[in-house]
Write a structure and sequence with these properties.
- This protein is mostly helical.
- The protein contains four helices and no strands.
- Helix 1 (3-24) packs antiparallel against helix 2 and helix 2 (30-55) packs across helix 4 (93-135).
- The longest helix is centred in the last third of the chain and has 43 residues, at 93-135.
- The protein is flat, with a radius of gyration of 20 Å.
Length: 136
């Protein structure tokens, strides 16, 4: 197994253990853990989308780049401020550490998972192209 796969499975195991412990012991934090894992996964997808969009900006007009970052910051900064002030600062401090750690676990897992799937699909496509090349 590659290091990426091992790390991905370890992070998924951490998430499953945290969730299992919360559900087995019927802790109040269990719904927060699920929600923050989902938010972390969504933030990972958003980060990957933005990084991919930035890579595609090469060769574009400077006005397009400024517009892209203006829209990105126009949506991102108010959402970040709302999330910090209305969600994190208003949460019970007993739930904060577990929720934030689950958010990070969700982000890291989904980032690694998307990379894993992308590598597998690229290898599969490359394998098919080799087969077609050899049979032609």
């Amino acid at each position: 197994m590659k290091k990426l796969t091992i790390v991905m499975w370890i992070i998924l195991l951490i998430a499953v253990v945290m969730l299992s412990k919360a559900f087995i012991l019927n802790e109040d934090i269990k719904m927060f853990l699920l929600i923050f894992f989902g938010i972390g996964s969504a933030l990972a997808f958003l980060r990957l989308f933005v990084n991919n969009s930035i890579k595609k900006m090469k060769g574009k007009d400077w006005k397009v780049k400024v517009l892209f970052f203006a829209v990105l910051l126009g949506f991102g900064l108010p959402f970040q401020s709302w999330f910090r002030n209305e969600v994190l600062f208003s949460m019970d401090s007993a739930y904060l550490a577990g929720s934030i750690s689950m958010l990070v676990v969700g982000m890291v897992f989904m980032t690694l998972f998307v990379g894993y799937v992308k590598n597998k699909l690229q290898a599969k496509v490359a394998g098919k192209q080799r087969i077609v090349k050899y049979t032609s």
